[in-house]
Amino acid sequence: MAALFSFISVIAAWVMLYWDSFPPLLRRWNTDDYSYCWLVVPLALYVAWQRKDLLPKVITPSPGSGYLTLLLSGVLFFLGKAAAVDALVFASMWLTVVSVVLFVYGWRSMKAFFFPLLVLAFAVPPPPFINRILTFKLRLISSDISVRMMQFIDIPVFREGNVIDLGVIQLHVVDACSGLRYVFPTILLGILMGYWFNSRTWQRVLVVLSTVPTAIFANALRIAIVGYLARNVSVETAESFFHDASGVVIYVLSIIVLATWSLLLNLLASRKPEQRAVSRPGYYGVPTGRALHVFLMAAVLGIYFAGNMYLFTGRVVPQRTSFDNFPLEIGDYIGKKQFYDDKIIESLGSDDYLSGIFRDKRTGREILLMVTYYDYQEPQRAAHNPVSCLLGGGGWSVASSRDLPADPQKGRPFKVRRLLLDKPGQQLLAFYWFQQRGRVITDEYMNKVYLAVDSITQKRTDGALIRVELLLREDESVEQGQQILEDFIKNFSSRLKPYIPE
Question: Which residues span the domain enclosing 152?
Fold first, then answer.
């Protein structure tokens, strides 16, 4: 009865603590990139049931390790809440499951539980900004391989970054087509195949290592097939295949390739496969203490909940002027505002924004300005590194990225991050900075640190991300373009005070 009461208590406390984190987690699971996460929990439970015979005959709880893991889960939880990084909160969820295993079964049982817990970790989606940076390279690799495939079968094609031009159709290999949608589930598939079909560690490692190349190659094949259909069948058929049926077809191909590779590794093995552990007659252990530790864990989760309510409620939202009233004449520049549709505004998550093109009345040069402002920041609605947004789907790559120190003589008493992006025949110069609660920051990670500190000490998480961009002319140096942006920022930044509170 005590064990049942403790189990119900820890489940109730766990649900109460993470209640407001379930919606963003499920929203991530409902996206195309992470829809496989719905299968992770059932798979982890199934694998745990399969490995029950590996449990030691004597079960010895490990309360010390359990409390240490529980403490770490609390640290990740509060850091995730304070710094608006929901991936840390999701990782905290996973660590609490590890804590329960340690309280009930102990370290000696990790031989049975390590692999199910590893599978369960795939239910935690990584931070979006990490995804965007990592998948840019995948987009370029997929584009390059697919172009080589099409050239091999004599299909005329031109690639500019991740834009593939077939003449009759242009394919933009954006995030959804970069291979990311297949990489994470393919890695999970490789881990499971290695476990189920291969008995030796080196075989399993090779299967897992082959998953990312398999996903990228399969995605490149998908794009090449689209090119073939566009040139030899019809553009409509190609577009239909590209957006509808190709994903399932290519993922099935990945499964076949991995299964074949796994079987080949078994054939190459020179010795008989290792035997799995046989079924044991059962296990026993002294139940004293386990129920108590699980109940104490429920109490600790309750303390975390109370701390969350105390630290992260009663946000302070300072008064400010809306960007609706921002002047469109800045020095020699006349601006024209741009407005986004509801879908883009929802993806930004900002409470206010300013977007527009400012034209120099003397030279005709245009500067793109984008400011997103947040009354408060939390997971899924926070300022993030704009590099991935600037890369977008236009074939740009980062040529250089560095901080420019403050230069009061030029009218810029704060540092900015300078990005130089290029693609064949074009260069884009961009400045950006985080302006938040009286600070100007260029490093995203330091911005998260200050966000966490201020959310606790001031109960404020308001702030803005500002970026300005200039398309360089063919005969224009980076230094000349930089001076143009410096002159614009000198007049622009002095007008921000009413719109971004200090």
Answer: 128-268
Does a structural domain hold residue 274? no
475 and 334, same domain (yes or no): yes
**232 plus 293 within the same structural domain:** no
d(CA 305, CA 26): 21
pLDDT in the model for residue 223 = 78
* One domain for residues 151 and 258: yes
> What integer is the mean pLDDT of 19-28?
90
Name which residue leads in pLDDT, 279 or 499: 499
- The pTM is what? 0.78
Amino acid, single-letter form, for residue 469: E
> With contact defined as beta carbons under 8 Å apart, do 321 and 499 qualify?
yes
Q: What is the mean pLDDT of residues 91-97?
A: 96
Helix (H, G, I), strand (E, B) or coil at 425: coil
CATH of the domain at 389: 3.40.1000
**Residue % of the chain over a pLDDT of 70:** 85
How far, in Å, are 59, 296, 305 from residue 302 at the CA level?
Answer: 27, 10, 5
Q: Which residues contact residue 405 at a Cβ distance below 8 angstroms, ignoring those fewer than 6 apart?
A: 415
| Residues 163 and 252 placed together within one structural domain of the fold | yes
- Boundary residue ending a domain (268, 302, 333): 268
Nearest to 82 by CA among 500, 463, 436, 460: 460
Amino acid at 489: I
**Alpha-carbon distances of 121 from 96, 227, 305, 493, rounded to whole Å:** 12, 37, 23, 44
Shared domain for 247 and 133, answered yes or no, is yes
What's the pLDDT band for 199 if we cut at 50, 70, 90?
confident
More confident residue, 278 or 429: 429
* Segments of 130-222 assigned E as strands: 158-160, 163-165, 170-172
Instruction: State the Cα–Cα distance between residues 275 and 267, nearest whole angstrom.
Output: 16
What is the count of structural domains for the chain? Answer: 3
